[in-house]
Amino acid sequence: MATLIHTISDHSDDVNYCAFSSSCLATCSLDKTIRVYSLSDFAELPYSPLEGHAYAVHCVCFSPSGLLLGSCSTDGTSVLWDSRDGRRLAVLRQPGASPVRVCRFCPRAARLLAGAADGSVVLWDVRSMAPYRSGQVKGGSLVACAFSPNGDFFVTGSSSGDLTIWDDTMRCLCNEKAHDLGVTCCDISSHPVSDSENGFKYFQMASCGQDNLIKLWLILFADFLGVQLKYKCTLHGHCAPVLACAFSCDGQLIVSGSVDKRVIISETSTGNTLHILSQHTRLFFICRYVTTCAFAPRSPLLATGSMDKTVHIWQLDLKQPCAGGTVENESKVAVEDWSEDDVSAWLCAQDLTDFVGLFKMNNIDGKELLNLTKESLANELKIESLGLRSKVLQKIEELRKTTSSASVPDEFLCPITRELMKDPVIATDGYSYEREAMENWISNRRSSPMTNLPLHSLMLTPNRTLKMAISRWLETQQK
Asked: Please, how many CA atoms are within 13 Å of residue 453, restricted to the half-sphere of its CB?
């Protein structure tokens, strides 16, 4: 079970990233700041917020010891901070001053990796504050990176969809086309996976992308084979681009966050969905993407951040998995066709596990679930508490709304809001968006919501053909 235990609402703009050390949580935002919190009580540390970047901060990371904090920004710099007192120790300027999208500390050496929008990759020596090695990704922006646990190699992901494996001398070892529409994030588990048949040990890697998919991979190093990247499986739980993924410290779980506003926790061994978290929804914000997620290294905590300007902290009960299976993808099976086990899994995902037995005893399947009312909850299911009845009814009402919009063709949904478009416009990236949502987007940034690449013009052209198609579809739904 995952229980929401705290919400951080200190940022004044979209939350871009969050990262844990053994004692702290760091977050960063479009508001140009980094904020640091104690894990003991989630209080903001006295020196927080950290200010120094001229533009949006895209990523933060802690060094293995937790004593250093790294950050990177659109301003073309990576900054090193002392996590004990917030002192700025160094400003590392990316060659070409390209916006730096991602940064990571090497697990075993005093080095920081920084990847930029122009595809440049720099491995900085944090003792000398000078570049140690540098490289270049071809054909796209570098948007993701992850080190192996031993620090011997690292993986980068690009907006062109490639995953590239490098050794610590910045020699390219392997390149794989992984996500057709672009990689958004990647992570490597700290626990190797054993191959009983051949006796090899693999590093397990996850990647996610604009194609709505999470892919699991196995990386093998062997003297006589060189490096091998083996595809393992694909997780299909999200219905929109997946922006973030991360392994738990033991490698048994993977969490992902998406444009569909949901966080999904899955088992890496089976691919089964354990929890679906959907608390990052605020009616007052157009953009509510879940942009980042991270597991704490030494405690059962999960942090998720979003364009709703908040960071949620979740407590995981890893000893009590949900009964009744999983809800793998609600769009694949209509709610009306859910079995009793599907309803049980949905109850678990909504933190209503206490009602699983009651619903099973009354043979509540998907059709019965949608027909439940406040009267039937009180009189037939005998739920005495008005508060609990209201909570269950609210979740059912949310499910009804999801069900009513589940059949909307995907091309009719705005990529930003994931809602039916009323006034579709075409941007210069070739994609169609709801006018109000896109105008809000370009008022703060000049990049494409779909590709993250620069927009050559901010001109929006009415998509009358699409608007007519949506009108015709709405007319057929009303018959």
From this structure: 20
CB 17 within 8 A of CB 33: no
What radius of gyration, in Å, describes the C-alpha atoms of the chain?
23
Q: What is the pLDDT of residues 160-205, one digit of tens each?
A: 999 999 988 888 888 899 998 899 999 999 887 765 455 567 889 9
Backbone angles phi, psi at 14, to 5 degrees: -50, 135
Instruction: For residue 468, count other CB atoms closer than 10 A to its CB.
Output: 10
- The token pair that represents 377 in the structure block: 């909850």
Segment 364-402, tens digit of pLDDT: 988 888 888 888 898 888 888 888 888 888 888 877 766
CA distance 391 to 19: 32
Give the other-Cβ count within 10 Å of 238's Cβ. 26
Distances (CA, A) of 6 to 40, 266, 312: 12, 22, 6
Q: How far apart are CA 334 and CA 194, in angstroms?
A: 38
Is residue 285 exposed (0-12), middle (13-18) or buried (19+ Cβ within 10 Å)? middle
Between strands 242-247 and 226-235, the pairing is unpaired
Distances (CA, A) of 114 to 89, 95, 124, 128, 197: 16, 11, 8, 16, 38
- Interstrand relation of 424-426 and 311-316 (parallel, antiparallel or unpaired): unpaired
Query: 61: closest CA among 96, 24, 87?
Result: 24
List the structure tokens of 59: 């990523």
Share of the chain above pLDDT 70, in %: 89
pTM to 2 decimal places: 0.68
Structure tokens at 232: 């393992």
Question: Is 90 exceeded by the pLDDT of residue 215?
Answer: yes
Q: How far apart are CA 207 and CA 178, in angstroms?
A: 8
HEC letters along 147-216: ECCCCCEEEEEECCCEEEEEECCCCEEEEEECCCCCEEEEEECCCCEECCCCCCEEEEEEEEECCCCEEE
Task: Measure the CA–CA gap between 159 and 181, rounded to whole angstroms.
Answer: 7
Strand order in the sheet with 424-426: 432-434, 424-426, 461-462
Contact (Cβ atoms closer than 8 angstroms) between residue 310 and residue 292 = no
Longest Cα–Cα distance of the chain, Å, equals 72
